[in-house]
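Lecture 7 notes: from sequence to structure.
We start with the chain below.
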Amino acid sequence: MTRRLPVGRLSAGRLLAAPGEGPALRNAEVTIADGRIAAIDCSDGAPRDGRIALPAMVNAHDHGYGILPLAMGGCDDALECWIASFLRLP
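Predicted structure tokens for the same chain:
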């Protein structure tokens, strides 16, 4: 079975390419080739529809399955305190 990579163009009225780091791009067109973003272009032409494009929202946290905080040297402290105590471990 051959895996097909996405190819095409995505148009959006606003593109949040780097949320929190810069303004939204208006009338953006994202070109996708071989499963990757190949280009981002903005036009001054007629406004695109009301679509907004942004990076995927990924939840990358973990709860340390099977490992209790006490075993890691943190006694159910707040995260900031736990990290500081964890960094002091040999």
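Points to note: Helices lie at 79-87. DSSP finds one helix and four strands in the chain.
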